[in-house]
Fold each of these.
Amino acid sequence: MDVLDRANALARAGRIVYHLEVGQPSSKAPQLALEAAQRALSEQVLGYTEALGRPQLRERISKHYRTVYGVDVAPERVVITTGSSAGFVLAFLALFDVGQSLAMANPGYPAYRNITRALGVRPRFIECREAGQFRLSAAALATVRDIDGVLIASPSNPCGTVVCADELLRIAGVCTERGLQLISDEIYHGITYETSAQTMLAYSPDVVVINSFSKYFSMTGWRIGWMVVPEWMVSTVERLAQNFYISAPAISQVAALHALDAAPELDGHVKGYAANRKLLMQALQCAGFGAMAPADGAFYLYVDVSPFGLESSVFTSRLLEEAGVAATPGIDFDPVDGGRWVRFSYASLQSDVERAAAAISRWCGTLKQG
Ligand SMILES: Cc1ncc(COP(=O)(O)O)c(C=O)c1O
């Protein structure tokens, strides 16, 4: 957020800034969703909806699991939320008491640890390093004792790593054996390259899956997402959601229903991310960056900047000031070793990623000469 503020200040002062720090698509919501929202604005009241979400949308998400993953999920288990961010709050509150512990990968999305701490739940890190290709595994989970649950994200932010189906099965097995609550953040599903991501619902009847229309569906600002919860959790989550949020925005629920039919348009965006990914990967490798996490999915490259001899927040600050490229320092994602790593997002337009890649290469060249 500090990088974004500074990048915006530079842009306001007339500098050209390439935004490789933002974790969101540069595209609009899909056309079908926009048209449905426009119709709803003129024809519907758009008041509160059911706390669990509009029945039609819950049914359609249930169908999504059948068609995309071949998994049966009763619509009654689907809960519509104000983005996955609300899903985390609801899940953590429903599953954990104050003082309990939730294990999660490090590096990882910072809101996981911030939300758990705010709710009095203790985050416990599972170190996911180069040796394990930055992927959370059943073996790594086995090294963490005295925990009450585990949160897995595949594809992950910031690494973009996907956990394969066999490993998901093993992780689900460990959770059943040890009686751990399992939460699966599947927000980057649909955005994968040379692989695909299976839902944890295929392996665990008790998992809480959290998903969103923000990333693949290109609807960050619509604040709409969903959870799939075990039957025994539905009424708890319903009461929490009713009290916290009343309901997710009605207009966004209308749009989301139609976004689920927009695969041809949305898959076109994924093709664009794939081209950006290839281009940026090549540029960073040539520019002398170190190791890179396997970017199986999402739209991030997580790379080692230690060959340049700068700590990551110094690196990103100078990259922004001197080359006009905004990127995110690894310390945001990893309090232990984040000083070595930087996350580049390639969700922008291809022309911007191309120009940003050229600016990074030039600037890294001057660093090496200096
Ligand atoms: C891994 C991950 N989970 C969840 C979120 C939150 O997304 P939203 O609340 O827009 O659904 C993000 C946002 O960047 C993310 O990267």
Amino acid sequence: MDHQPSSDLPVKIGLEIHVQLRTKSKLFCSCSADYRSASANSNICPICTGQPGSKPKFVNKSAVENAIKMALALNSNVNLNNAISMQRKHYFYPDLPSGYQRTSKPIATGGSLKDVTFTEMHIEEDPGQFELRDGTVDYNRSGVPLVEIVTEPEFKDPKHAREFLEELLAILDYLSAASIQPGSLRVDANISVAGNNRVEVKNINSFKGVFTALTFESARQKNLVKNNLPVARETRHFDESRGTTSSLRRKEDAQDYRYFSDPDVSYLILSESQIQEIKKTLPELPSEKRNRFCKVYGLIEEEAFAITLEKYMADCYEQVAKSVDSKIAGNFFRGILKKQLNYRGLSMVESELTSSILIKIIKMMTSAQITEKVAEQLLIAVLDLKADPQEYAEKNNLLGIQEQSTLNEIIDKAISENPQAVKDYLSGKQESINFISGIVMKLTRGKADPKHLQLTLKEKFDLIKKSG
Ligand SMILES: [Zn+2]
């Protein structure tokens, strides 16, 4: 899609990221914030459906604390002078029963992540869910606490935004202050190309979707600019299944929302000492853990980065690294483990893998009972069949690195059955050694030690060469 070099026309991207805060109840009432399991319109009350005469309760304190925790973890400045005050943001849409959304004044400003400055962060309530296809509304979500994180338009390209979100997601995972399940994160993006009009893209409902939406939209605008066509100032809708954006409406201004202070909600004043108390609850954050893993466990930066993106994985790694060679474990986590999880689209916590299972597999490998190839086979058996690695290895005859005498026979067989590969090698194609090696691995079901096999094959080929 992105066939034009991204440097030819400068792109500016800013993001508004909505994250659901992890709380028991909604922002202004006692309805559960866990709305997903409830049947439609059963998790509601007069407050969160904006019924006449209903008054909001005092703002949910744990929502505020979680939001402050996020701001502190992102090195944003919590505004102590401003008490937390709620405003009404007016607009009409069927998912908003009161005709306005309660949204706080900024609770924090400034700070940065991956060279992108945070403009501000504020708390607001989630609207209900409007189903465009049949016109039904489910208000179960109405009033669930959100934090909106607004950035300056400082992203250089979609990849930059993806890296930023990856790190943000890791920080949120570590804080346990926000819900990071699918549907909990929603992103609006504003994009402009070469100083032309800014376009807002709405309805990006996954972090993965952000990259697709930004790639499509920046290519679309670049095309217009290159063809001397105007870029309209508008709001566009992202269609995740198609990976495209389409025009929704003219862009609204802040004054279109007629913001004013909500007379029904009292101010919440946080003292400096309360903020300091919240600060004390901050856990070790991904970047800090990364540095420590490199120092303590001898990991290279890429390994530490891959392992610390998910807190559960980082915790498991640390358990494993205490029982086996920490560098071999690091290599296993970044390589085989990540590969197999990515292939299945699973996070480590979703995979239900435990550190004790991984210790078993890695110990079999370090005690030379199995090769790395077999270790991968065992991991697959654990993931897909919930097998016990030791039992599975015994049952399938995977234990024991192949004896040299049997290995020699198998190598001879592979060589004699593939004369072309030998000819290729003799004529200078070094990589045909990998072809034979692959065949041997298949025949031994991965039990041959790969390094040893490479050496043996090289010797054999050189012998053939000498004998002409
Ligand atoms: Zn309610």
